[in-house]
Predict the 3D structure of the following.
Amino acid sequence: MGKGEDGGLRLRSTREVKLETPMASDEVRSLRVGDVVYISGTLVTARDRAHKRMMDYIECGKPLPVDMHGIPIYHCGPIVRRTNRRWIVISAGPTTSMRMEPYEGYVIRRLGIPMIIGKGGMGEETVRAMEEFGAVYGAFTGGAGALAATLIERVAGVEWLDLGMPEALWILEVKDFGPLVVAIDSHGNNLFMEVYREARGRVDEIIRRIEHKV
C-alpha cells in the first residue's frame, strides 16, 4: 500500500484477473491486494449457521454434501424463488463477513477453501489461515444483490435447506462473477487494516493539532 499524490491511499495492484473454479493454489498465491478478480465456475454460499454445521460435520468425521476443495465460499444469504421445478436467484448480495470469523479459519484449513467472498473483511484468525494455506478475501460491493443475481447462470443445487433459505448451502454456477477486489491476500497484506491505520493516523494528527492550539 502506498500513497497517491494527494496523500490518500492507493492500491499496490490494479490487475484484472479471470479465474475458473476449482482454483489452483498457484493462481491464488499470485493474487495481490488490489487485484480485481472475475470468477467463472462454481461458488457455494454459506453464512454462520452453515459454517457451524460444516465444523460439526468435520469434527464428527462426517462428509460434507459438497466437495469444497478449490471452491470459493460466498458469504451470502440469497433470495431464491422456485419456479417450474428449478430455482431462480432474485438477489445475492454479500453478507457482513465478520459474522463468520469464529469458523472461517478452521474451515479454510480443513476444506482447502481458496477464496472467501463477502463485505467488510475478516479478523486475525482468518487472515492467518489465509496466509498459511494460500487463500484470499474478495470484497464484493454491498447493496449489489440484483447485479450479483445477473451473474449467476444457474442454481446447480442446494443443501441444508432445513436451515432456512438464507442459511442453506447454495451451489451456484457463475460467469465472470465480480468485480471482486482482493482486499486480503495470502501474503499477509490486508487492505482493511491498512485503511484503518491510515485513518487512525490522521485522527491522531488532528488531535495533536487541536491539543497544540489549546
User: Anything to note?
Assistant: The first helix runs from residue 25 to 29. The mean pLDDT is 87. The helical segments are 25-29, 48-60, 101-111, 124-133, 145-150, 191-213.
